[in-house]
Amino acid sequence: MTTQTPPHQHRVLTPEQRRRRRRRQVATRWAVIGVVLVLLVAGGYVVYNYQRFVNGITHIDAIPGGSTNNKDQNILLVGDDHRPDNATPEQLAQLGTQDDGGGTSTDTMIIVHLPADGSSATMISLPRDSWVDIPGFGQDKLNAAFTYGTENGGGDAGGAQLLITTIQNLTGLTIDHFVRVSLLGFYNVVDALGPVQVCLNEAVDDPFSAVNLPAGVSTLNASEALSFVRQRHGLPNGDLDREVRQQYFLSVEARQILSAGTLLNPGKLASVLDAISSSIETDSGLNIIDLATQMRGLNADNIHSATIPISGTPTITVDGNDVSIVQVDTAAMPGFIAQVLGTSTPAPAASPSAYDSATASPVGEVTVTVLNGSDSDGVAASNTDALSGFGFKTGTPDSTDSTSTTTIQYPAGNEGHAKAVAAYFPGATLEVADVADVTVILGTDGISAVDPNAAPTDAPASPADTSTPAATDSPTTSYAQGACIN
Predict the structure, then answer these.
(1) What is the DSSP string of 408-468?
(2) Rg of the chain over CA atoms, in angstroms?
(3) Burial (0-12, 13-18, 19+ Cβ within 10 Å), 186
(4) 82 Cβ partners below 8 Å, 6+ apart?
C-alpha cells in the first residue's frame, strides 16, 4: 500500500537544493528507445559513463549500403530467442524458457521512428509470423530472415542485412540503424533497472512462457518480466497480443527509466548503462550521443505504438505441412505508414509513376462517387456525406460486389484528383480504371473517410484509468500511466 506525501509548505531553497531541482527537471526530459536503446545523460554522469558505455557495445556491419544521415530516424529494434551456450537448467528456469524452445530467430522486431525534432517516438511492431518475401529464399515467416542471412558465413552482419532488406521491402521505410538484444541481455537490463509494475485485465497462467499473474497490478522481477513479454499462448489474439505486451512493457519501462530514481542515482545509472552496453549489438554508424541529443524533448506520454496492418491469421500448407501465419495487408501498408508517421498521403511506390509525381488537386475541384462493397449497411451514404462535408463534390452512393479491400479507382490522367481523395482514405488501394470520376469502393477492411487535418484524438487516459485504451481513428496507441491490457 502506498501513502500520499503531504504537500510541501513554501520554503526558501538553498543553492544546492535549487541546483538539484534544476538537474531533476532537466534529467527527466532525456529520452529512451525501449529498454535496450538508452543513453541516460544527466549532469556530470555523461563524461564518466559514455566511454565505458560505448566500449561495451558490439558493432557489426548491419546496414545494407551503410548507415544514412537522415534527420528522421528509423531504428530496427530486434530481440532474438537465443539462450546462453551450455545453459544450465537453473539458468533456463531463471529466464523462464524451459518449456518453449530456443534459437536465433528474431521474435521481437520493432521499428522505432524518431522525427527530426525528437519530440515523439512511434514503435511499429512486425509480428514474427508475418508471411513475407525474403530475398533469395522465397516466401517464409519474417523471423526466419535473420537466420537465413547468417548462413554460408554471413554471420550476424549477414543476418541483420537480410532482415533489414526484407523489412524495407515490406514497409517502404528506410532503416537507418539496427539494435539487437538477446534473451539473456533483456534479462540483465531489466534486472539492473529493478522491479517494474504492470496491470492485466485478466489473470494469466501460461506454462510455455512460465508466466502466472493475477488480474490487476503486479510487480515483476527480471525473470517475470521476461515471461510477460514472451507470452503468446493463452492470449485472445495469440502472437498479435504478444506484440501488445511488448509495446506496453516498453512504455512502462520508459517511464521508469525517465524517473529521477534512475537518472539521479549514480550507482543505479552505472549498472543500467553497463547492462545495456554489454547486451546489445548495433550498426557501426549509430552515434549514441547524437541520438540522445535528438531525443532530449521526448517524454513517456509521447511514445506511441502500432502494429503493421494484417488481413488475417490463416493456416496454409507448405511442402505438405500446415503452417500458421500472419497475413500482411500489403495493400494497406502505404496508407498505414503515412498515417502513423503523420503524413497525409500514401508513401510513394518504389518506382516513379504519374501518380507519384502528381500534385493533389483542391478538394472543391474533385467529384467522388462512393460504392459499398463492405458487409455494413449505409456506409456509402455516410462516407458520401463526410466527403461532402470536407468540400468534395459527390456522386450518388450505391452498392457493388463485396470486396475485402477498399479501393480508389480513377481515370488515367486524373492522378491529382485521386491523390486528393487518397488523403482521406489512408490504407486504401489505388487503381486506374474505366470510371468517369474518382470512385471509392469500400471494402470489409473497415476503411472510411477521415479528415487528415484533424487534431489527433488518441489522448492518453487519465492516470487512474485501468482499462485498455479506447480505439480511435488513429492506428497508434499511447499507454497512459496505470493502464491495463489483456
Answers:
(1) EEE-TT-HHHHHHHHTTSTT-EEEE-S-SSEEEEE-TT------TTSPP--PPPPTT--SP
(2) 24
(3) buried
(4) 102, 103, 104, 182, 183, 184
Cell numbers for 274 = 553497463
Contact between 272 and 262 under an 8 Å Cβ cutoff? The reply is yes
Q: Please, what's the b/e burial string for 356-367 (b: 16 or more CB within 10 A of its CB; e: otherwise)?
A: eebebbebeebe
Listed residue (419, 376, 424) closest to 397, CA to CA: 376
Rounded Cα distance, 237 and 255, in Å: 27
Q: What is the pLDDT of residue 111?
A: 93
Element (H, E) at 179: strand 177-181
In this structure, are residues 200 and 486 in contact, taking their beta carbons and an 8 Å threshold? yes
pLDDT of residue 73: 87
Measure the CA–CA gap between 409 and 389, rounded to whole angstroms: 21
Residue 343 CA from chain centroid, whole number: 17
DSSP summary character for residue 229: H
Question: What backbone torsions phi and psi does residue 384 show, to the nearest 5 degrees?
Answer: -60, -45
Question: At residue 238, does pLDDT exceed 50?
Answer: yes
Using a pLDDT cut of 90, give the percent of the chain over it.
20
Q: What is the pLDDT of residues 34-93, one digit of tens each?
A: 333 433 333 334 444 566 677 778 888 998 877 666 678 899 988 765 544 444 555 455
17, HSE (Cβ side, Cα atoms, 13 Å) = 4
Residue that the C-alpha cell 518449456 belongs to: 99
> At 338, which helix (H) or strand (E)?
helix 333-340
**pLDDT in the model for residue 455:** 46
| Polymer length in residues for the chain | 486
Dump the DSSP string for 278-318: TTEEEETT--HHHHHHHTTT--GGGEEEEE--EEE--EEEE
Q: Which residues contact 69 (CB under 8 A, 6 or more apart)?
A: none
**Confidence at residue 431, expressed as pLDDT on a 0 to 100 scale:** 85
Dump pLDDT digits (tens) for 88-120.
555 455 555 444 444 455 677 889 898 888 778
Q: How far apart are CA 166 and CA 51, in angstroms?
A: 34
What does the pLDDT read at residue 58? 82
Closest CA to 220 of 176, 184, 187: 187
Distance CA 468, CA 486 (A): 8
Residue 339 has pLDDT above 70, yes or no: yes
